[in-house]
Amino acid sequence: MKIQEYINNNVNNLTKLDMLEFFKHIHANYYNELDITFMEYFLSLCGKEHEFCVEQEKLIQFGVLSADNKSNHVKRTLTEQLLLVENEDFHLLPNVGQQMKSTGKGSGVKYKNVYTLTPYALKLALIRSKNTKVYARYYILLEIVFKFYNEYQYLYQQKLLSMKDDKIDHLQQTVETQSENIKTVVEQNKKILNLAEQQGVKIDALHDTVKNLEIKIDELIKLVNKFLSGQVDLIYTFNNNIRDTKVLIIYKLQHKDDDTKYNVVLRYAGLNQISKSISNFTAKKDNESYNIVSFTTIGAIQQNMISVQQICKKLCNINALNKQTLDGLSNDECNELIKNAFDVIEKNKINKFSENMQSNEVLREHADSMKHLMKLDNQFNKDIITLFDKYLKEKVFDNKSFRVSKLCSELDKLYHIYKN
After folding, report:
1. Cβ distance 63 to 127 under 8 Å?
2. Residues 253, 263: contact at Cβ < 8 Å?
3. Residue 100: what pLDDT?
4. pLDDT tens, residue by residue, 86-107
């Protein structure tokens, strides 16, 4: 990818880059043959341009001077070859001593001239050096990167400005549209007010009408609730002894040796007979090779509302005599059959409600009566099933005793909530 493509991609993606990030990417991808390991040291000198803080040894390290240069040669190199000015670009550190190595003739301290430079002078020296071109190329690279970075900054700002212009145009268009809409609403309100004045509509009369309507709605809701209270005893088996309450349970069985084969069994049972009912049907020879994998309870519905035989006659793949499916049903077929059984019962219940409601002169005239009635009944039935499932699970899957007294106590509370 060329440098220009790199710039365009970052501009289009609105990628914000600082100068250092930009420089490092350009160097790594386009000028990586140039050694810039000294760059961190150079950056550390920024802000100290006119301080004499660069030791003479740095000139040796960077290849401007050799280690064996004598003091007078060092000064000539600085002034004549590198064109630096003493006491402006560099200065002498007086009386710098260096311990001489011990020889046969003796040892001692030898004094030599040592110079320190400003960072500005160091960089001039590196650029002007005849011994290496690395530093000159480094500063040329800085110039190249500076040029491209300025271009990136300019294009980035232009991109932001163009986006702001688009947003301003969009907002202006939105404001104009809203202004037109407001004008239209104002005109419509004027027409409504004029019409109200012409027809002599009074706010007090309107309030009275709304209040009367609210009273009628409240009376209708109370009537529906009272009607439902009567239907509770008609549809559900909550009579004098709640232990006699009957519930329809649909068991789903899976073959022990072939997990693709399923069976469905329908059973009505009173709460005080559920433990015996479960034991009886699991002990049957036909069911010995099956395990119960799930069960579905469908309310405490009276048998005289719809019998198991009536349900079975409306379903496929089920024997109405023994109230269970034929062998070999798939998992999907079993699930579909259970759903259909629930639909048969629900449809029958809705028909019962509808028939009974027709005998009520007030409710049959209001379409919302049935809707409100079914909403209450559905919640009632849902709460019943939740209780049954809780206690049946303990019996069927955890092999615990069926806590019929506890269940009946909770059912009785629930029954009286809806009944009253």
Report:
1. no
2. yes
3. 47
4. 999 999 887 665 544 545 555 5
Per the CB < 8 A criterion, the answer to whether 366 and 336 are in contact is no
Which residues, 6 or more positions from 287, have their beta carbon under 8 angstroms from its beta carbon?
253, 263, 265, 281
Q: What's the token pair of residue 253?
A: 């069985």
Cβ neighbour number for residue 298 with a 10 Å cutoff: 22
**83: region left, alpha or beta (phi > 0 left; psi from -120 to 50 alpha):** left
CB atoms within 10 A of CB 149: 18
pLDDT at 402: 78
Residue 134 has pLDDT above 80, yes or no: yes
Total residue length of the chain: 420
Q: What is the pLDDT of residue 305?
A: 63
Phi and psi, residue 110, nearest 5°: -110, 130
Taking CA atoms, 33 is separated from 25, 126, 334, in Å, by 13, 19, 74
Q: Residue 262: phi, psi to the nearest 5?
A: -130, 160
pTM above 0.85, yes or no: no
**Under 8 Å CB-to-CB from 272, ≥6 apart: which residues?**
243, 244, 404
